[in-house]
Design brief:
With 581 residues, the protein is an alpha+beta fold. It is built from 16 helices and 22 strands. The mean pLDDT is 96. It binds aspartic acid.
Length: 581
Protein backbone atom coordinates (compact mmCIF):
# COMPACT_ATOMS: atom_id res chain seq x y z
CA UNK A 1 0.00 0.00 0.00
CA UNK A 2 1.35 3.40 -0.99
CA UNK A 3 -0.14 5.00 2.12
CA UNK A 4 -2.13 3.53 4.97
CA UNK A 5 -4.02 6.70 5.90
CA UNK A 6 -4.60 10.26 4.76
CA UNK A 7 -3.25 13.27 6.63
CA UNK A 8 -6.67 14.09 8.05
CA UNK A 9 -7.80 10.95 9.78
CA UNK A 10 -5.45 9.80 12.54
CA UNK A 11 -6.32 10.50 16.17
CA UNK A 12 -5.81 9.15 19.69
CA UNK A 13 -7.56 5.89 18.74
CA UNK A 14 -4.64 5.10 16.41
CA UNK A 15 -1.88 5.46 19.01
CA UNK A 16 0.86 2.84 18.61
CA UNK A 17 -0.18 1.96 15.06
CA UNK A 18 2.51 1.85 12.41
CA UNK A 19 1.33 4.11 9.55
CA UNK A 20 2.52 5.49 6.23
CA UNK A 21 1.42 8.93 5.06
CA UNK A 22 2.04 10.87 1.87
CA UNK A 23 1.68 14.57 1.28
CA UNK A 24 3.18 18.00 0.87
CA UNK A 25 5.34 19.74 3.44
CA UNK A 26 3.41 22.67 4.82
CA UNK A 27 5.92 23.78 7.42
CA UNK A 28 9.17 22.69 9.08
CA UNK A 29 9.98 23.71 12.66
CA UNK A 30 13.12 23.00 14.66
CA UNK A 31 12.96 23.01 18.46
CA UNK A 32 16.27 21.98 20.00
CA UNK A 33 16.84 18.32 19.16
CA UNK A 34 13.35 17.92 17.69
CA UNK A 35 12.20 18.72 14.17
CA UNK A 36 8.51 18.87 13.27
CA UNK A 37 7.01 18.74 9.80
CA UNK A 38 3.39 19.57 9.07
CA UNK A 39 2.40 17.15 6.34
CA UNK A 40 -0.60 18.20 4.26
CA UNK A 41 -2.94 16.53 1.82
CA UNK A 42 -6.52 17.17 0.71
CA UNK A 43 -7.85 15.77 3.96
CA UNK A 44 -5.85 17.66 6.53
CA UNK A 45 -2.53 18.07 8.28
CA UNK A 46 -0.62 15.59 10.42
CA UNK A 47 2.48 16.42 12.43
CA UNK A 48 5.58 14.35 11.78
CA UNK A 49 8.17 14.33 14.55
CA UNK A 50 11.91 13.64 14.26
CA UNK A 51 14.13 13.17 17.30
CA UNK A 52 17.82 13.73 16.63
CA UNK A 53 18.85 11.65 19.63
CA UNK A 54 16.77 8.62 18.74
CA UNK A 55 17.19 8.84 15.01
CA UNK A 56 20.10 11.07 13.94
CA UNK A 57 20.25 9.61 10.40
CA UNK A 58 16.71 10.64 9.50
CA UNK A 59 17.30 14.07 10.95
CA UNK A 60 20.29 14.43 8.63
CA UNK A 61 18.19 13.19 5.71
CA UNK A 62 15.49 15.81 6.17
CA UNK A 63 17.85 18.74 6.48
CA UNK A 64 17.50 19.88 2.84
CA UNK A 65 13.69 19.47 2.81
CA UNK A 66 11.62 22.55 2.07
CA UNK A 67 8.06 23.74 1.68
CA UNK A 68 5.86 21.82 -0.79
CA UNK A 69 8.20 18.86 -1.18
CA UNK A 70 6.20 15.66 -1.67
CA UNK A 71 7.24 12.97 0.79
CA UNK A 72 6.24 9.61 2.16
CA UNK A 73 6.74 8.99 5.86
CA UNK A 74 6.39 5.83 7.91
CA UNK A 75 6.38 5.70 11.68
CA UNK A 76 4.44 5.11 14.83
CA UNK A 77 1.44 7.16 15.95
CA UNK A 78 2.20 8.67 19.36
CA UNK A 79 0.43 10.98 21.71
CA UNK A 80 1.46 14.55 21.26
CA UNK A 81 3.07 16.43 24.11
CA UNK A 82 1.51 19.79 23.28
CA UNK A 83 -1.84 19.13 21.66
CA UNK A 84 -3.48 21.26 18.97
CA UNK A 85 -7.21 21.47 19.63
CA UNK A 86 -7.82 23.26 16.31
CA UNK A 87 -7.30 20.27 14.04
CA UNK A 88 -8.77 16.75 14.17
CA UNK A 89 -5.31 15.17 14.19
CA UNK A 90 -4.05 17.54 16.89
CA UNK A 91 -3.77 14.91 19.64
CA UNK A 92 -1.17 12.82 17.87
CA UNK A 93 2.03 12.94 15.84
CA UNK A 94 4.02 10.37 13.89
CA UNK A 95 7.47 9.45 15.19
CA UNK A 96 9.02 8.89 11.81
CA UNK A 97 11.32 5.92 11.25
CA UNK A 98 11.50 6.01 7.50
CA UNK A 99 11.13 8.86 5.03
CA UNK A 100 11.25 9.05 1.27
CA UNK A 101 11.29 12.04 -1.04
CA UNK A 102 8.73 11.47 -3.78
CA UNK A 103 9.47 14.80 -5.39
CA UNK A 104 11.25 17.93 -4.24
CA UNK A 105 9.70 21.34 -4.92
CA UNK A 106 10.96 24.74 -5.82
CA UNK A 107 10.05 27.46 -3.36
CA UNK A 108 6.44 28.28 -4.38
CA UNK A 109 5.81 31.80 -5.74
CA UNK A 110 3.42 32.54 -2.87
CA UNK A 111 2.66 31.04 0.50
CA UNK A 112 0.26 28.11 0.51
CA UNK A 113 -1.61 29.27 3.57
CA UNK A 114 -5.23 30.20 4.23
CA UNK A 115 -4.17 33.83 3.85
CA UNK A 116 -1.69 33.87 0.99
CA UNK A 117 0.76 36.64 0.20
CA UNK A 118 0.22 36.19 -3.57
CA UNK A 119 -1.78 38.67 -5.68
CA UNK A 120 -4.75 37.56 -7.81
CA UNK A 121 -2.91 37.34 -11.11
CA UNK A 122 0.03 35.44 -9.67
CA UNK A 123 -2.27 32.95 -7.99
CA UNK A 124 -4.21 32.45 -11.24
CA UNK A 125 -1.00 31.76 -13.12
CA UNK A 126 -0.19 29.06 -10.58
CA UNK A 127 -3.77 27.97 -9.99
CA UNK A 128 -2.67 24.39 -9.26
CA UNK A 129 -0.75 25.75 -6.27
CA UNK A 130 -3.55 28.07 -5.23
CA UNK A 131 -5.94 25.11 -5.28
CA UNK A 132 -3.82 23.52 -2.53
CA UNK A 133 -5.00 26.24 -0.15
CA UNK A 134 -7.91 25.48 2.16
CA UNK A 135 -10.26 28.27 1.07
CA UNK A 136 -10.26 27.13 -2.56
CA UNK A 137 -10.29 23.46 -1.64
CA UNK A 138 -13.33 24.04 0.54
CA UNK A 139 -15.05 25.94 -2.27
CA UNK A 140 -14.55 23.08 -4.71
CA UNK A 141 -15.76 20.63 -2.12
CA UNK A 142 -18.83 22.79 -1.60
CA UNK A 143 -19.43 22.86 -5.35
CA UNK A 144 -19.14 19.09 -5.49
CA UNK A 145 -21.64 18.63 -2.66
CA UNK A 146 -24.07 21.03 -4.27
CA UNK A 147 -23.91 19.17 -7.57
CA UNK A 148 -24.56 15.88 -5.79
CA UNK A 149 -27.58 17.32 -3.96
CA UNK A 150 -28.97 18.72 -7.20
CA UNK A 151 -28.51 15.38 -8.94
CA UNK A 152 -30.14 13.55 -6.04
CA UNK A 153 -33.18 15.79 -6.08
CA UNK A 154 -33.60 15.71 -9.84
CA UNK A 155 -33.14 11.97 -9.95
CA UNK A 156 -35.76 11.50 -7.23
CA UNK A 157 -38.24 13.41 -9.34
CA UNK A 158 -37.53 11.29 -12.40
CA UNK A 159 -35.41 13.78 -14.31
CA UNK A 160 -32.87 12.19 -16.67
CA UNK A 161 -29.44 13.76 -17.09
CA UNK A 162 -28.71 13.80 -20.80
CA UNK A 163 -25.63 15.30 -22.41
CA UNK A 164 -26.03 17.58 -25.39
CA UNK A 165 -23.32 18.45 -27.91
CA UNK A 166 -20.74 21.20 -27.63
CA UNK A 167 -20.11 21.66 -31.34
CA UNK A 168 -23.42 23.01 -32.56
CA UNK A 169 -25.19 25.61 -34.63
CA UNK A 170 -25.85 28.90 -32.85
CA UNK A 171 -28.34 29.02 -29.94
CA UNK A 172 -29.14 32.66 -29.28
CA UNK A 173 -29.15 33.79 -25.65
CA UNK A 174 -28.25 37.37 -26.39
CA UNK A 175 -24.46 37.01 -26.44
CA UNK A 176 -21.91 36.43 -29.19
CA UNK A 177 -21.02 32.86 -30.05
CA UNK A 178 -17.60 31.35 -29.62
CA UNK A 179 -16.98 29.65 -32.92
CA UNK A 180 -14.85 26.67 -33.90
CA UNK A 181 -13.67 26.24 -37.48
CA UNK A 182 -14.32 22.91 -39.11
CA UNK A 183 -11.28 21.45 -40.89
CA UNK A 184 -13.23 18.84 -42.81
CA UNK A 185 -15.82 21.40 -43.89
CA UNK A 186 -13.61 24.29 -44.91
CA UNK A 187 -15.11 27.73 -44.49
CA UNK A 188 -17.72 26.43 -42.04
CA UNK A 189 -17.89 26.89 -38.31
CA UNK A 190 -19.49 25.32 -35.30
CA UNK A 191 -20.74 27.48 -32.46
CA UNK A 192 -20.18 26.50 -28.85
CA UNK A 193 -23.52 26.43 -27.00
CA UNK A 194 -24.61 29.60 -25.21
CA UNK A 195 -27.02 27.14 -23.62
CA UNK A 196 -28.47 23.74 -24.59
CA UNK A 197 -31.79 25.50 -25.30
CA UNK A 198 -32.52 24.03 -28.73
CA UNK A 199 -31.41 20.55 -27.72
CA UNK A 200 -33.48 20.42 -24.57
CA UNK A 201 -36.52 21.44 -26.57
CA UNK A 202 -35.72 18.72 -29.10
CA UNK A 203 -35.45 16.25 -26.21
CA UNK A 204 -38.99 17.22 -25.20
CA UNK A 205 -40.08 16.45 -28.74
CA UNK A 206 -38.28 13.14 -28.43
CA UNK A 207 -40.41 12.33 -25.41
CA UNK A 208 -37.86 12.71 -22.57
CA UNK A 209 -40.34 14.73 -20.57
CA UNK A 210 -38.04 15.47 -17.62
CA UNK A 211 -34.50 16.43 -18.58
CA UNK A 212 -31.69 18.07 -16.70
CA UNK A 213 -27.99 18.55 -17.16
CA UNK A 214 -25.18 20.24 -15.28
CA UNK A 215 -23.52 21.68 -18.31
CA UNK A 216 -20.87 24.06 -19.59
CA UNK A 217 -22.10 27.06 -21.58
CA UNK A 218 -20.10 29.62 -23.52
CA UNK A 219 -20.87 33.27 -24.10
CA UNK A 220 -18.56 35.73 -25.76
CA UNK A 221 -19.64 38.82 -23.87
CA UNK A 222 -17.91 42.08 -23.15
CA UNK A 223 -15.72 41.74 -20.13
CA UNK A 224 -17.38 42.61 -16.89
CA UNK A 225 -16.30 41.96 -13.38
CA UNK A 226 -17.07 38.41 -12.36
CA UNK A 227 -18.19 37.15 -15.75
CA UNK A 228 -16.63 34.00 -17.12
CA UNK A 229 -16.71 33.20 -20.85
CA UNK A 230 -17.40 29.60 -19.93
CA UNK A 231 -19.65 28.84 -17.01
CA UNK A 232 -21.91 26.08 -15.76
CA UNK A 233 -25.68 25.86 -15.80
CA UNK A 234 -28.10 23.51 -14.17
CA UNK A 235 -30.30 23.21 -17.23
CA UNK A 236 -33.79 21.70 -16.99
CA UNK A 237 -36.84 21.14 -19.15
CA UNK A 238 -40.24 19.51 -18.63
CA UNK A 239 -43.14 18.53 -20.88
CA UNK A 240 -46.87 18.76 -20.26
CA UNK A 241 -46.45 21.53 -17.73
CA UNK A 242 -47.67 25.02 -17.08
CA UNK A 243 -45.67 27.79 -15.45
CA UNK A 244 -47.01 26.81 -12.02
CA UNK A 245 -45.62 23.25 -12.36
CA UNK A 246 -42.17 24.56 -13.23
CA UNK A 247 -42.16 27.06 -10.38
CA UNK A 248 -43.24 24.44 -7.86
CA UNK A 249 -40.69 21.88 -9.04
CA UNK A 250 -37.74 24.23 -8.85
CA UNK A 251 -38.85 25.97 -5.72
CA UNK A 252 -38.62 22.44 -4.34
CA UNK A 253 -35.08 22.13 -5.63
CA UNK A 254 -34.03 25.42 -4.02
CA UNK A 255 -35.59 24.44 -0.71
CA UNK A 256 -33.88 21.05 -0.88
CA UNK A 257 -30.54 22.74 -1.49
CA UNK A 258 -30.97 25.22 1.35
CA UNK A 259 -31.95 22.45 3.73
CA UNK A 260 -29.20 20.02 2.75
CA UNK A 261 -26.40 22.49 2.27
CA UNK A 262 -27.17 25.21 4.79
CA UNK A 263 -29.69 23.54 7.09
CA UNK A 264 -32.07 26.42 6.44
CA UNK A 265 -35.83 25.84 6.14
CA UNK A 266 -36.66 28.35 3.47
CA UNK A 267 -40.11 29.92 3.76
CA UNK A 268 -42.34 29.79 0.70
CA UNK A 269 -40.65 31.63 -2.14
CA UNK A 270 -42.50 34.90 -2.69
CA UNK A 271 -43.49 36.02 -6.14
CA UNK A 272 -43.42 39.49 -7.57
CA UNK A 273 -44.37 40.57 -11.07
CA UNK A 274 -41.73 42.16 -13.24
CA UNK A 275 -43.78 45.37 -13.30
CA UNK A 276 -43.90 45.54 -9.49
CA UNK A 277 -40.21 44.68 -9.19
CA UNK A 278 -39.42 47.65 -11.41
CA UNK A 279 -41.91 49.91 -9.66
CA UNK A 280 -40.85 49.14 -6.09
CA UNK A 281 -37.17 48.29 -6.51
CA UNK A 282 -36.19 49.68 -9.91
CA UNK A 283 -34.74 46.31 -10.79
CA UNK A 284 -35.85 42.98 -12.20
CA UNK A 285 -33.64 41.32 -9.61
CA UNK A 286 -34.45 43.09 -6.37
CA UNK A 287 -32.55 42.54 -3.17
CA UNK A 288 -35.59 42.06 -0.96
CA UNK A 289 -33.64 41.41 2.24
CA UNK A 290 -34.69 44.93 3.14
CA UNK A 291 -37.66 47.17 2.37
CA UNK A 292 -36.91 50.77 1.44
CA UNK A 293 -39.40 50.40 -1.41
CA UNK A 294 -39.76 53.12 -4.02
CA UNK A 295 -42.62 55.57 -3.61
CA UNK A 296 -43.82 57.38 -6.74
CA UNK A 297 -44.19 61.07 -6.01
CA UNK A 298 -45.39 62.60 -9.28
CA UNK A 299 -48.73 63.62 -7.79
CA UNK A 300 -47.29 65.36 -4.72
CA UNK A 301 -44.28 67.09 -6.25
CA UNK A 302 -45.25 68.28 -9.70
CA UNK A 303 -47.49 71.18 -8.73
CA UNK A 304 -44.93 73.89 -7.96
CA UNK A 305 -42.40 75.78 -9.97
CA UNK A 306 -39.61 73.22 -9.85
CA UNK A 307 -38.71 72.50 -13.45
CA UNK A 308 -36.61 69.42 -12.78
CA UNK A 309 -39.61 67.61 -11.31
CA UNK A 310 -42.20 69.09 -13.62
CA UNK A 311 -40.35 67.95 -16.71
CA UNK A 312 -39.59 64.50 -15.35
CA UNK A 313 -41.50 61.42 -16.42
CA UNK A 314 -41.03 59.98 -12.95
CA UNK A 315 -40.37 61.55 -9.54
CA UNK A 316 -39.63 58.79 -7.08
CA UNK A 317 -38.20 58.46 -3.59
CA UNK A 318 -37.03 56.13 -0.86
CA UNK A 319 -36.97 56.53 2.90
CA UNK A 320 -33.71 55.98 4.75
CA UNK A 321 -34.86 55.19 8.29
CA UNK A 322 -33.19 57.14 11.04
CA UNK A 323 -30.90 59.09 8.70
CA UNK A 324 -32.23 62.59 9.44
CA UNK A 325 -28.98 63.31 11.23
CA UNK A 326 -26.91 62.92 8.04
CA UNK A 327 -24.38 65.73 7.86
CA UNK A 328 -23.98 68.11 4.95
CA UNK A 329 -20.91 66.10 3.99
CA UNK A 330 -22.76 62.80 4.05
CA UNK A 331 -25.58 64.22 1.94
CA UNK A 332 -23.09 65.64 -0.56
CA UNK A 333 -21.47 62.21 -0.59
CA UNK A 334 -24.77 60.65 -1.65
CA UNK A 335 -25.18 63.21 -4.41
CA UNK A 336 -21.66 62.46 -5.60
CA UNK A 337 -22.52 58.78 -5.50
CA UNK A 338 -25.48 59.11 -7.89
CA UNK A 339 -23.50 61.48 -10.11
CA UNK A 340 -20.73 58.96 -10.71
CA UNK A 341 -20.53 58.10 -14.41
CA UNK A 342 -21.57 54.48 -13.69
CA UNK A 343 -24.89 55.81 -12.39
CA UNK A 344 -25.10 59.07 -14.28
CA UNK A 345 -27.85 60.93 -12.41
CA UNK A 346 -27.82 64.70 -12.53
CA UNK A 347 -28.70 65.16 -8.90
CA UNK A 348 -30.44 64.08 -5.75
CA UNK A 349 -33.09 65.84 -3.68
CA UNK A 350 -33.37 65.18 0.02
CA UNK A 351 -35.97 65.93 2.67
CA UNK A 352 -34.94 65.66 6.29
CA UNK A 353 -37.77 64.82 8.71
CA UNK A 354 -36.62 66.54 11.87
CA UNK A 355 -37.40 65.18 15.31
CA UNK A 356 -39.51 68.27 16.13
CA UNK A 357 -41.86 67.58 13.23
CA UNK A 358 -40.40 70.21 10.91
CA UNK A 359 -38.82 69.49 7.55
CA UNK A 360 -35.70 70.67 5.81
CA UNK A 361 -35.05 69.99 2.16
CA UNK A 362 -32.66 70.81 -0.63
CA UNK A 363 -35.63 72.30 -2.53
CA UNK A 364 -37.03 74.58 0.19
CA UNK A 365 -37.07 77.38 -2.38
CA UNK A 366 -39.86 75.62 -4.26
CA UNK A 367 -41.83 73.73 -1.65
CA UNK A 368 -43.44 74.86 1.59
CA UNK A 369 -43.81 72.93 4.84
CA UNK A 370 -47.19 71.50 3.82
CA UNK A 371 -45.79 70.23 0.53
CA UNK A 372 -42.97 68.46 2.34
CA UNK A 373 -45.35 67.04 4.89
CA UNK A 374 -47.48 65.61 2.11
CA UNK A 375 -44.42 63.93 0.62
CA UNK A 376 -43.42 62.50 4.01
CA UNK A 377 -46.92 61.16 4.54
CA UNK A 378 -47.02 59.58 1.12
CA UNK A 379 -43.66 57.93 1.80
CA UNK A 380 -44.60 56.79 5.28
CA UNK A 381 -41.59 58.70 6.62
CA UNK A 382 -41.41 59.52 10.31
CA UNK A 383 -39.51 62.01 12.40
CA UNK A 384 -35.84 61.10 12.22
CA UNK A 385 -36.01 59.76 8.65
CA UNK A 386 -34.39 61.00 5.49
CA UNK A 387 -36.24 60.98 2.15
CA UNK A 388 -34.11 60.72 -0.99
CA UNK A 389 -35.72 61.66 -4.29
CA UNK A 390 -34.69 61.32 -7.90
CA UNK A 391 -36.42 62.36 -11.09
CA UNK A 392 -36.15 61.95 -14.83
CA UNK A 393 -36.95 59.48 -17.56
CA UNK A 394 -38.76 56.55 -15.97
CA UNK A 395 -36.58 53.52 -16.62
CA UNK A 396 -33.34 55.45 -16.17
CA UNK A 397 -34.48 57.01 -12.90
CA UNK A 398 -35.65 53.65 -11.57
CA UNK A 399 -32.25 52.13 -12.29
CA UNK A 400 -30.43 55.05 -10.69
CA UNK A 401 -32.55 54.99 -7.55
CA UNK A 402 -32.05 51.23 -7.42
CA UNK A 403 -28.31 51.81 -7.11
CA UNK A 404 -28.85 54.38 -4.39
CA UNK A 405 -31.21 52.03 -2.53
CA UNK A 406 -28.60 49.27 -2.58
CA UNK A 407 -25.93 51.72 -1.43
CA UNK A 408 -28.13 52.87 1.46
CA UNK A 409 -28.83 49.21 2.25
CA UNK A 410 -25.07 48.67 2.51
CA UNK A 411 -24.51 51.77 4.62
CA UNK A 412 -27.28 50.84 7.01
CA UNK A 413 -26.13 47.24 7.27
CA UNK A 414 -29.40 45.92 5.85
CA UNK A 415 -27.83 43.52 3.34
CA UNK A 416 -26.79 40.96 5.88
CA UNK A 417 -24.57 38.05 4.96
CA UNK A 418 -26.12 34.76 5.94
CA UNK A 419 -29.65 36.08 5.39
CA UNK A 420 -31.41 34.92 2.23
CA UNK A 421 -34.38 36.32 0.42
CA UNK A 422 -35.45 34.18 -2.49
CA UNK A 423 -37.97 35.51 -5.00
CA UNK A 424 -39.63 34.47 -8.22
CA UNK A 425 -39.93 37.42 -10.56
CA UNK A 426 -42.75 36.53 -12.97
CA UNK A 427 -44.70 37.99 -15.90
CA UNK A 428 -41.73 39.40 -17.76
CA UNK A 429 -42.44 41.35 -20.93
CA UNK A 430 -41.85 39.16 -23.97
CA UNK A 431 -39.88 41.80 -25.83
CA UNK A 432 -37.62 44.69 -25.14
CA UNK A 433 -37.29 47.72 -27.42
CA UNK A 434 -33.76 48.81 -28.28
CA UNK A 435 -33.43 52.49 -29.10
CA UNK A 436 -30.07 52.14 -30.75
CA UNK A 437 -30.99 49.50 -33.31
CA UNK A 438 -34.67 50.52 -33.36
CA UNK A 439 -35.98 47.00 -33.02
CA UNK A 440 -37.38 44.57 -30.50
CA UNK A 441 -35.26 41.94 -28.82
CA UNK A 442 -36.50 38.89 -26.95
CA UNK A 443 -36.26 39.70 -23.27
CA UNK A 444 -35.55 36.06 -22.47
CA UNK A 445 -34.93 34.28 -25.76
CA UNK A 446 -36.95 33.88 -28.95
CA UNK A 447 -38.42 30.53 -27.91
CA UNK A 448 -40.35 32.00 -24.99
CA UNK A 449 -44.12 31.87 -25.43
CA UNK A 450 -46.28 34.96 -25.10
CA UNK A 451 -49.04 34.66 -22.52
CA UNK A 452 -51.89 33.02 -24.44
CA UNK A 453 -54.18 35.97 -23.74
CA UNK A 454 -51.59 38.36 -25.23
CA UNK A 455 -50.83 36.33 -28.34
CA UNK A 456 -53.22 38.27 -30.54
CA UNK A 457 -51.32 41.54 -30.05
CA UNK A 458 -47.91 40.14 -30.92
CA UNK A 459 -47.80 42.16 -34.13
CA UNK A 460 -50.09 45.06 -33.27
CA UNK A 461 -48.71 45.92 -29.84
CA UNK A 462 -45.57 43.88 -29.25
CA UNK A 463 -44.29 46.05 -26.39
CA UNK A 464 -47.31 45.18 -24.26
CA UNK A 465 -47.09 41.42 -24.61
CA UNK A 466 -46.11 39.56 -21.47
CA UNK A 467 -44.59 36.13 -21.31
CA UNK A 468 -44.84 33.16 -19.03
CA UNK A 469 -41.23 33.83 -18.17
CA UNK A 470 -39.73 33.81 -14.70
CA UNK A 471 -36.45 34.45 -12.92
CA UNK A 472 -35.27 33.15 -9.60
CA UNK A 473 -33.58 35.88 -7.61
CA UNK A 474 -31.59 35.50 -4.40
CA UNK A 475 -30.48 38.62 -2.53
CA UNK A 476 -30.49 40.73 -5.66
CA UNK A 477 -28.77 38.19 -7.89
CA UNK A 478 -30.44 36.52 -10.82
CA UNK A 479 -29.75 32.87 -10.14
CA UNK A 480 -31.87 31.39 -12.85
CA UNK A 481 -34.54 31.94 -15.38
CA UNK A 482 -36.78 30.21 -17.81
CA UNK A 483 -40.09 30.19 -19.53
CA UNK A 484 -42.91 28.25 -21.07
CA UNK A 485 -41.88 27.72 -24.68
CA UNK A 486 -43.54 28.17 -27.99
CA UNK A 487 -44.44 24.71 -29.29
CA UNK A 488 -46.29 25.72 -32.40
CA UNK A 489 -44.50 26.29 -35.68
CA UNK A 490 -46.67 29.17 -36.83
CA UNK A 491 -46.34 31.07 -33.57
CA UNK A 492 -42.57 30.58 -33.63
CA UNK A 493 -42.44 31.95 -37.16
CA UNK A 494 -44.49 34.98 -36.09
CA UNK A 495 -42.10 35.52 -33.21
CA UNK A 496 -39.05 35.46 -35.47
CA UNK A 497 -40.76 37.96 -37.73
CA UNK A 498 -41.51 40.36 -34.87
CA UNK A 499 -37.83 40.10 -33.95
CA UNK A 500 -36.97 41.27 -37.45
CA UNK A 501 -35.47 38.03 -38.73
CA UNK A 502 -35.73 37.47 -42.45
CA UNK A 503 -37.14 34.19 -43.75
CA UNK A 504 -33.71 33.30 -45.04
CA UNK A 505 -32.15 33.89 -41.62
CA UNK A 506 -34.90 31.96 -39.87
CA UNK A 507 -34.37 29.05 -42.23
CA UNK A 508 -30.58 29.08 -41.83
CA UNK A 509 -30.59 29.29 -38.07
CA UNK A 510 -33.75 27.60 -36.90
CA UNK A 511 -34.98 25.22 -39.57
CA UNK A 512 -34.27 22.24 -37.35
CA UNK A 513 -36.53 23.44 -34.54
CA UNK A 514 -39.23 24.64 -36.92
CA UNK A 515 -39.24 21.29 -38.70
CA UNK A 516 -39.38 19.40 -35.46
CA UNK A 517 -42.49 21.35 -34.44
CA UNK A 518 -44.27 19.54 -37.29
CA UNK A 519 -43.82 16.09 -35.77
CA UNK A 520 -45.78 16.27 -32.57
CA UNK A 521 -44.27 18.74 -30.16
CA UNK A 522 -45.59 18.60 -26.57
CA UNK A 523 -46.22 21.79 -24.61
CA UNK A 524 -43.09 22.33 -22.55
CA UNK A 525 -41.13 24.73 -20.41
CA UNK A 526 -38.14 24.87 -18.17
CA UNK A 527 -35.35 26.95 -16.80
CA UNK A 528 -31.66 27.08 -16.08
CA UNK A 529 -29.76 28.04 -12.95
CA UNK A 530 -26.30 29.53 -12.96
CA UNK A 531 -24.40 26.92 -11.01
CA UNK A 532 -21.24 28.93 -10.34
CA UNK A 533 -23.28 31.87 -9.06
CA UNK A 534 -25.41 29.60 -6.91
CA UNK A 535 -22.25 28.24 -5.27
CA UNK A 536 -20.99 31.75 -4.60
CA UNK A 537 -24.28 33.08 -3.19
CA UNK A 538 -24.79 30.12 -0.90
CA UNK A 539 -21.28 30.71 0.42
CA UNK A 540 -21.88 34.45 0.91
CA UNK A 541 -19.12 35.10 -1.56
CA UNK A 542 -19.03 37.74 -4.30
CA UNK A 543 -16.84 36.01 -6.81
CA UNK A 544 -17.85 33.03 -8.97
CA UNK A 545 -14.20 32.64 -9.89
CA UNK A 546 -13.46 31.24 -6.46
CA UNK A 547 -15.79 28.33 -7.20
CA UNK A 548 -14.34 27.39 -10.57
CA UNK A 549 -11.28 25.17 -10.53
CA UNK A 550 -9.60 26.82 -13.50
CA UNK A 551 -11.20 30.17 -14.28
CA UNK A 552 -10.19 32.85 -16.77
CA UNK A 553 -8.91 36.22 -15.60
CA UNK A 554 -10.70 39.54 -16.13
CA UNK A 555 -9.37 39.73 -19.66
CA UNK A 556 -10.88 36.31 -20.49
CA UNK A 557 -7.40 34.76 -20.47
CA UNK A 558 -6.13 31.57 -18.99
CA UNK A 559 -2.71 32.85 -17.97
CA UNK A 560 -1.75 29.45 -16.59
CA UNK A 561 -2.07 27.57 -19.89
CA UNK A 562 -1.68 30.67 -22.01
CA UNK A 563 -5.01 30.62 -23.80
CA UNK A 564 -6.07 32.01 -26.15
CA UNK A 565 -2.86 31.78 -28.16
CA UNK A 566 -1.78 31.98 -31.75
CA UNK A 567 -1.77 28.81 -33.82
CA UNK A 568 0.75 27.69 -36.42
CA UNK A 569 0.55 28.67 -40.06
CA UNK A 570 0.14 25.01 -40.83
CA UNK A 571 -2.96 24.76 -38.68
CA UNK A 572 -4.35 27.95 -40.20
CA UNK A 573 -3.74 26.59 -43.70
CA UNK A 574 -5.45 23.35 -42.80
CA UNK A 575 -8.47 25.31 -41.63
CA UNK A 576 -8.18 27.57 -44.66
CA UNK A 577 -8.12 30.61 -42.43
CA UNK A 578 -6.26 33.66 -43.57
CA UNK A 579 -5.52 36.23 -40.90
CA UNK A 580 -5.95 39.88 -41.82
CA UNK A 581 -2.67 41.74 -41.64
N1 LIG B 1 -31.68 28.70 -21.92
C1 LIG B 1 -32.05 29.69 -20.97
C2 LIG B 1 -30.82 30.44 -20.49
O1 LIG B 1 -29.70 30.00 -20.70
C3 LIG B 1 -32.75 29.15 -19.78
C4 LIG B 1 -34.08 28.60 -20.14
O2 LIG B 1 -34.88 29.31 -20.75
O3 LIG B 1 -34.32 27.46 -19.78
O4 LIG B 1 -30.93 31.47 -19.87
Amino acid sequence: MYRTHTCGELNAANINEEVTLCGWIQKIRKLGGMTFIDLRDRYGITQLAFNSEINPDICKQIEPFGREWVIRATGKVTERYSKNKNIPTGDIEILVTNIEVLNPSQVPPFTIEDESDGGDELRLKYRYLDLRRNPLKNNLLFRHKLSIEIRNYMNELGFMEIETPMLINSTPEGARDFVVPSRVNPGEFYALPQSPQTFKQLLMMAGYDRYFQIVKCFRDEDLRADRQPEFTQVDCEMSFVEQEDVLQTFEGLIRHIFKKIKNIDLPKVERITWADAMRYYGSDKPDARFGMKFVELNDVLKHRDFKVFNEAELVVGIVAKGCANYSRKQLDGLTDFVRRPQIGASGLVHITCNQDGTFKSSVDKFYNADDLKAVAEKCGAEAGDLILIMAGQKLKTQKQLCELRLEMGNRLGLRKAGEYKVLWVIDFPLLEWDEETQRYYAMHHPFTAPKPEHEAMLESNPGEVNANAYDLVINGNEIGGGSIRIHDRKLQQRMFKVLGLSEEETERKFSCLLNAFQYGCPPHGGLAFGFDRLCAILSDCDSIRDFIAFPKNNAARDTMCNAPSIISQEQLDELRIELKK
